[in-house]
Fold this sequence. Notes:
Layout: H1 4-11, H2 24-28, H3 54-64, E1 71-77, E2 82-86, H4 99-110, E3 117-122, E4 128-131, H5 140-150, E5 163-170, E6 203-204, E7 206-207, H6 211-225, E8 229-236, E9 246-252, H7 256-264, H8 269-280, H9 285-298, H10 322-333, H11 338-343, E10 346-347, E11 367-374, E12 377-386, E13 389-398, H12 403-415, H13 418-422
Parallel strand pairs: 4-5, 5-8
Antiparallel strand pairs: 1-2, 1-13, 3-4, 3-9, 6-7, 10-11, 11-12, 12-13
Helix pairs in contact: 3-12, 4-7, 4-8, 5-6, 7-8
Amino acid sequence: MFNLTKALWATGLLASCNLGAQFSSVRAQQLEPPPLPLLSPMGLPMLQAQVMCPQLQRGVQQAVGAEAAVWSISVADSSGRLLADINGDRPRIPASNQKLLSTAIALDRLGPDHRLNTELWQLPDGSFRLLGSGDPSLGFLQLKRFAKLASGSGGSSNSGSGLVRLQLEEEPASRWWPQGWSLADRNYDYGAPITRLALTSNAVDMSVQNPPARMKRLLSQEIGRNGRTAMISSIPAGSTKPADSILLLSESSKSMHHLLSLANSESHNFTAEVLLREGTGSWNLPITQRRTLEWLQQQGLPIQGVAIQDGSGLDRGNRVTSRLLTALLLRMAQHPYAKNYLASMAVTGQKGTLASYFRGTELEGRFSGKTGTISGVKAVSGVLSTADGPVYVSMISNGSAAPVTVMGRVLKLGMGAGHCRQLGF
């Protein structure tokens, strides 16, 4: 097994971090998390507390100007040196930069080969059960295959005419939305409810307000087209299947790379929410929130003042710091799945939510990162490719008048961060 902790100690990158006293209450309430994959946890090169490049620090201060109070910016090199920092330890609303946490946890805990499965089971009494794990790519073709099998015309033993009894495993309606999502946001596709069986990610132009009812209606129609009548009910997710139940069909999601890219490059809220739930092993959001903090703590990340409310960043109750996000990027750069994580990001002037940013400038194609935008909030965090190696940058504004302009200035300054090394900083 690759031992990243030893590798980091050997290169002097791993520093100790004693957060035990601050998080004793978290540990006291801790529920037993799901088993960790082979490669996790492995530690993180901690950011140094002192700014190491005065010249870059002055440049960043000039870039934000009189708006310094509404910005948090942290810039680090690959050795964990904090090159520049403004309010880096001040918690801010991160918007969709929250997805960097969700995707990191999912990749670390589940691995790059993991897929989300939707399964049809036949029970010993001849009835059927459909259960899922939130596959955002679940579509009508899969639904038709499930209906065909349940009708007995696709190879199941349920042949002939009569009633098809089908159970849908689903979360209770009280868990479909994080509490901090506004009623207005819940009406739009980006605020669709988070359910285990989510046809077209629970959105058709606008959000689908009652996904189980929609699923029942469409399955009933398809079963009817196969000459049968359906009686469909809902049962709690995780219900025990009777012994001797038979798996008839398992439909897998697209690849983990696709899921990570949906969340990070395209900023798909539903996918990010599912990845956090699956990565932490719980669809009960309070448990998910606690396990997220525990995972961050296990990595040695600076989590003072951090608050986790959801996996997508739509909840305005989330709080992170730019130092946390920069340290997370550093930690994932040392991860065995580092290439998978970086490949999921948007790219300036070329891909995803950064495709229209800085096109035709020296920054085009040089920055891979995650954007974040909600009312009054603009954030971007990622990896800047420079001639002297990668530079890790996180910028969060809560109230800037022209945030993209400031971000462009800081990234251009970061392109010349090699002078810090040349000057001995």
